[in-house]
Amino acid sequence: MGTCVRLFRRLRGGIWLAVGLAATACPVSARSPVVVELFTSQGCASCVKAGELVADLAARPRIIALTFDVDYWDYLGWQDTFARSEFADRQRAYLKPLGVHDVYTPEVVVNGRRETPAVDPQAVDKLIQDAQHGVQDPPQIIVRKKTLAVGAGPAPKGGGEVWLIRYDPREQSVAVKKGETRGAVVVERNVVRELIRLGAWRGRPKTFRLPETEDASLTSVALVQGAHGGAIIAARKLQ
After folding, report:
1. In this structure, is residue 86 part of a structural domain?
2. Does some domain include residue 16?
3. Which CATH number do you get for residue 69?
4. Is 150 within 8 Å of 162 (Cβ atoms)?
5. Residues contacting residue 59 through CB under 8 Å, at least 6 positions apart
6. What count of other Cβ atoms lies within 10 Å of the Cβ of residue 212?
7. Residue 65 falls within a domain, yes or no?
8. I need a surface site. Which of 19, 72, 100, 141 has the fewest CB within 10 A?
9. For residues 69 and 137, which has the higher predicted lDDT (pLDDT)?
10. Residue 157 domain-assigned (yes or no)
11. Segment 28-61, tens digit of pLDDT
12. Helices 121-131 and 50-58, axial angle in degrees (round to 10)
């Protein structure tokens, strides 16, 4: 995220005082990390090996790789153990902006701007390379113990949204016992467990309260994104 700096407040007499010692701001004259979202399902035969892609991406610097398990294939006989309806809703929100006719798996969405089937690693790499030369100078994301602040910056057309995503960075192995993928062991990484919309952002500095989680092992990510499935303009892992 670039060099992190402490925030300072100017007092009378030209004295500068450090404030918010638990807070850091990563000014991103450098670009934000590339966000790669995999939409997948344990019950989808084409998705069994999709987790290998996320495992590879998770090991690369300046990439935030996320696995969203969707529930619309559950009717095939296997109830995906990580799926939530809101994850499928997030994928559907991308349909119109990305010009996709219908949801499918395994799908990769890069920075909310472009998508490709996850079965084509070369196409995924090309989208990531293109994204690394994308938007510069995104708004700062400033983290304190219980709050998250987004700095000023150009807002997307139609306004922006701030999202909090919490995922499990550990490898997850699931033995599928029913349905199309019966007998397969599906291995997943960076499985999203919580997807929370913190609120709207319209280009002016704004602070949001961070909700607590009962699972301290989860890793948190904040995204600033165009509304209704728009492009991601800033991202940061929260420490």
Report:
1. yes
2. no
3. 3.40.30.10
4. yes
5. none
6. 7
7. yes
8. 19
9. 69
10. yes
11. 445 789 999 999 999 999 999 999 999 999 999 9
12. 30
